[in-house]
């Protein structure tokens, strides 16, 4: 049974469920930062997913990237599967800007998170939910 | 025309060309570290690649991950497209260990590279070349 890791549940807000992944918003106003968590609790790496799941992951990842560009004007995207501290497979999608707090370094471990206000967080979640089609079909 | 970015050319050794990506070995003996560089000079993100190229990238990425596990016993894989400092699209594949120099932090910007000796580097390149099939067909 899929259960979100406690660290992800603590640090992120739930946005919705894609066909494969749970979509989370990192509660850190320093960077627009989405996280995809494949609902495959026994898998630790992208390469461990089945072929079909890898395709679906790609489609969902592409959508996250498109949203970070269209809604936040991302100058650069950082897409990374690390998981050294949180073993549950999750893939970061971070919008980066040449004037952001950590630029040009990676965001991880640089600066403490600066949470959104409850109102800001709720508004962002609503914004994301409006952008997400009910079902993502992969076109591959 | 595809030309490798000077920073990648300086820091890495050339291993070979997959159908889509150039395969590089980071010259840093602290971590077994492969880099895939899609030979698509006009693309900056994985999501900018065509659908067909994304599938091919996945196949080549999966092979890198399999090699890092089978040959180096990777405990964890870090797979990341960052590119904040080197704009040419390139995807890191790093074998991580709970006793490595940067664990559990990401490897980027943590510690200066410790180059292999010329003999070690050459031996690794030979090892990798023997592991790479002439052509990778994606099975999706």
Describe this structure in words.
2 copies of one chain form a homodimer. Chain A is α+β, with helices and mostly antiparallel strands. In chain A, 30% of the residues lie in helices and 21% in strands. Chain A has 3 helices and 5 strands, in the order αβββαββα. Chain A has helices at 6-11, 51-72, 118-131, and strands at residues 12-17, 21-26, 33-38, 76-81, 91-96. A 5-stranded antiparallel sheet of chain A has the order 1-2-3-5-4. Chain A is globular and about 40 Å long. Chain A starts with 5 loop residues before the first helix and ends in a 9-residue tail after the last helix. The model of chain A has no long low-confidence stretch (mean pLDDT 94). The interface between A and B is medium-sized, with 31 and 31 residues. Strand 4 of chain A pairs antiparallel with strand 4 (76-81) of chain B.
